Automatic annotation (TrEMBL):
Cellular component GO terms held in the UniProt record: membrane
Entry protein name: Mechanosensitive ion channel
Molecular function in Gene Ontology: mechanosensitive monoatomic ion channel activity
Compartments (UniProt record): Membrane
UniProt keyword annotations, A-Z: Membrane, Transmembrane, Transmembrane helix
Topology of this chain in the membrane: Multi-pass membrane protein
Transmembrane segments: 29-48, 60-81, 93-118, 130-155
Family listed: Belongs to the MscS (TC 1.A.23) family.
Stretch forming the signal peptide: none
A family per Pfam: MS_channel_2nd
Length: 337
């Protein structure tokens, strides 16, 4: 399953589309404004003598209406901010996260407004909010940790939608990042031995990234990974010819974009503190002696992680066909050995 980095998920696309729709924006802002005006008007109405029968509830209703008016005003501001964010030129996944963050902040501020107006003073409101936070902290430790994990993902960016990652024992392509969990389209897993999608979705809490290493196979600066193919030949084979032939066949299978990244790889390695790594040629071909007195030919190359299985298959077929066509240069290990 190929996931384009710049393409939003259906949920993200629908959210951003609604924010771009001027008619929907004007309609919602109009309703928020009408509701705010109604709340303010009701605060004057309930002060009439006819509502004296409310008694001690009079002040409570007045505070609720005033808090409602402030909340609707805040929602108008929030809607305007979301519209401005949606017009940005950032990646769609990041725009969606910023919009969700704005909505979350708006929701938290509205709760604080109601707590403030329903208490007699700010000290009581602060104590109430503190007690509520303490109780929620004990009761909702995992969801709160996952919410903090979401902030970490948005701000630090260990991965984004479209990346192929591994977290704990979960391997997959990121298809959605929400407040509390992340969804992966699994590859490999318990059903597959190759780097192909298994057809299963994985949802894990965002708090998991604080407890495990995050492996990102789609690093933006170098979105390729190393891969290798090995096979066995006899000592009678022409190793120099095998090396040249295997490298030539492998280069013929790799696309131009992959080859272009080789120089990027050299540049990045040269910028690291590790000075003893030098890549003179690509791909690599190493030879090792097997315990059964065979020669193991190890072909090492770089590849897009989402195409590694298909590329490995293509290279194996091409290399074996080329070597079989030259039996005077190379001999494979006999079957059953």
């Amino acid at each position: 399953m190929e996931i384009k980095d710049q393409e939003p998920t259906p949920e993200q696309r629908e959210t951003i589309k609604k924010l771009h729709n001027e008619d929907i924006k004007k309609t919602k802002i109009s309703w928020y404004l009408i509701c705010a005006i109604c709340c303010i008007a009701m605060t004057f109405v309930i002060r009439l003598d006819v509502f004296r029968f409310l008694g001690s509830y009079h002040q409570l209703i007045d505070n609720i209406l005033f808090a409602g008016a402030c909340s609707f005003g805040l929602m108008i501001v929030s809607r305007f901010v979301q519209s401005q964010i949606a017009k940005g030129s950032l990646e769609k996944g990041l725009l969606y996260n910023l919009i969700q963050f704005t909505r979350l902040v708006t929701f938290v501020v509205i709760i604080f407004i109601f707590i403030s107006f329903l208490n007699a003073n700010w000290y009581t409101a602060a104590v109430s909010l503190g007690l509520i936070s303490l109780l929620l902290g004990f009761a909702l430790q995992t969801p709160i940790a996952s919410l903090i994990g979401w902030f970490y993902i948005v701000l630090r960016g260990p991965f984004k939608v479209g990346d192929r990652i591994q977290v704990s024992s979960f391997n997959g392509d990121v298809v959605e990042i929400n407040f509390l969990d992340t969804t992966l389209w699994e590859f490999r897993g318990g059903l597959m031995t190759s780097d192909l999608p298994s057809g299963r979705l994985i949802r894990f809490p965002n708090s998991l990234i604080f407890q495990n290493q995050v492996y990102n196979y789609s690093w933006q600066k170098f979105p390729l990974v190393w891969n290798e193919v090995s096979f066995y030949i006899t000592f009678k084979s022409d190793l120099e010819w095998v090396e040249k032939t295997v490298r030539k066949v492998c280069l013929g299978q790799l696309d131009a974009e992959t080859k272009a990244h080789v120089q990027d790889m050299r540049d990045q390695i040269s910028e690291t503190p590790v000075e003893d790594i030098e890549i003179k040629e690509f791909p690599f071909v190493n030879f090792r002696i097997h315990e059964n007195n065979w020669v193991e030919v190890l072909l090492i190359y770089i590849v897009n992680p989402k195409q590694s299985s298909q590329m490995r298959s293509d290279i194996v077929k091409a290399v074996i066909a080329e070597l079989n066509a030259n039996p005077e240069k190379v001999a494979f290990v006999p079957e059953g050995s």
